[in-house]
C-alpha cells in the first residue's frame, strides 16, 4: 500500500519500505522494500519516519529471500534493532524520479483525488490505496454519504481514467456496490481518535499509500 504523509513543513513523504525484524546480533535489520529493485531503497539517501523528523541512514550488507539486510547508523546491537521492528521508512516525494509516460503515476499520487462517476457526478474522494494480497484497491470516501467509505479494485475496468493534472479519476463502481449498506466493500469510516502519527498507523488506516508507498501498481501505476 502506498502511505503519503506530510511533515510539519508540508513536505510529502512516501513509504518505500518497512523494517521487519532484526538480523543477527550486531544491529543489522531485515527490510521489506516496496521499490522495484530492493537495492533502490538506499539510493534515495537518508530515509525518514512518517513526519520527516527521525532520519535513518542505511548501509546494505546482504539479502535474505526477498528482503534487504542493512545496517542503520547508530544501531549497534540486536536490542536496538528489535525496537525498530515494524518501522516504516519514508522518502520525500520530491526524491522519487519523475514519471515518463503521460499515463504513468505513483499510487501515492492517487490519494486526495476526486473520484467522478462515469455518469459525470461526483462519487467521492480517494482517501487511501492498499494491497491486501489480491491486487491494489482504493478507498473512497463517498460524497453523499457522510462517514461512508467504499473499497474499489484498482483495475482498468473500475478506474478507466486517472487525470492527475486535474486531480481527478473516473470510476465505474461494480453494480450493486452501494445497495447493501453492510455489504462487502462498504463500511463506515471510524471517527478520528487522538493518537500518535506513528509508522504503524498506515496499517490500521489502510492507506493511504500504510500508499503511498511507492508500492506495486496495477495497470498504468508506477513503482519507485
From TrEMBL:
Biased composition (Basic and acidic residues): 194-205
Gene Ontology cellular-component annotations: cytoplasm; ribosome
Keyword Disulfide bond annotated: no
Compartments (UniProt record): Cytoplasm
Domain PRC-barrel: 102-178
Role description: An accessory protein needed during the final step in the assembly of 30S ribosomal subunit, possibly for assembly of the head region. Essential for efficient processing of 16S rRNA. May be needed both before and after RbfA during the maturation of 16S rRNA. It has affinity for free ribosomal 30S subunits but not for 70S ribosomes.
Similarity comment: family membership: Belongs to the RimM family.
Protein name, per record: Ribosome maturation factor RimM
Organism ancestry: Bacteria, Pseudomonadati, Pseudomonadota, Alphaproteobacteria, Rhodospirillales
Amino acid at each position: 500500500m502506498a502511505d503519503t504523509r506530510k511533515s510539519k513543513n508540508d513536505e510529502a513523504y512516501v513509504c518505500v519500505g518497512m523494517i521487519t525484524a532484526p538480523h543477527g546480533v550486531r544491529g543489522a535489520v531485515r527490510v521489506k522494500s516496496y521499490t522495484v529493485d530492493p537495492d533502490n531503497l538506499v539510493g534515495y539517501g537518508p530515509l525518514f519516519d512518517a513526519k520527516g523528523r527521525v532520519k535513518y541512514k542505511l548501509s546494505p550488507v546482504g539479502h535474505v529471500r526477498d528482503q534487504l539486510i542493512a545496517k542503520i547508523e547508530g544501531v549497534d546491537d540486536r536490542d536496538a534493532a528489535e525496537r525498530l521492528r515494524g518501522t516504516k521508512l519514508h522518502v520525500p516525494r520530491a526524491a522519487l524520479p519523475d514519471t515518463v509516460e503521460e499515463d504513468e503515476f505513483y499510487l501515492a499520487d492517487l490519494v486526495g483525488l476526486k473520484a467522478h462517476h462515469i455518469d459525470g457526478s461526483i462519487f467521492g474522494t480517494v482517501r487511501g490505496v492498499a494491497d491486501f494480497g489480491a491486487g491494489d484497491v482504493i478507498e473512497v470516501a463517498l460524497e453523499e454519504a457522510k462517514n461512508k467509505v467504499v473499497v474499489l479494485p484498482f483495475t482498468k475496468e473500475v478506474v478507466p481514467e486517472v487525470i492527475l493534472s486535474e486531480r481527478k479519476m473516473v470510476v465505474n463502481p461494480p453494480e450493486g456496490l452501494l445497495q447493501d449498506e453492510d455489504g462487502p466493500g462498504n463500511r463506515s469510516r471510524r471517527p478520528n481518535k487522538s493518537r500518535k502519527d506513528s509508522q504503524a498507523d498506515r496499517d490500521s488506516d489502510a492507506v493511504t499509500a500504510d500508499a503511498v508507498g511507492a508500492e506495486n501498481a496495477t495497470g498504468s501505476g508506477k513503482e519507485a
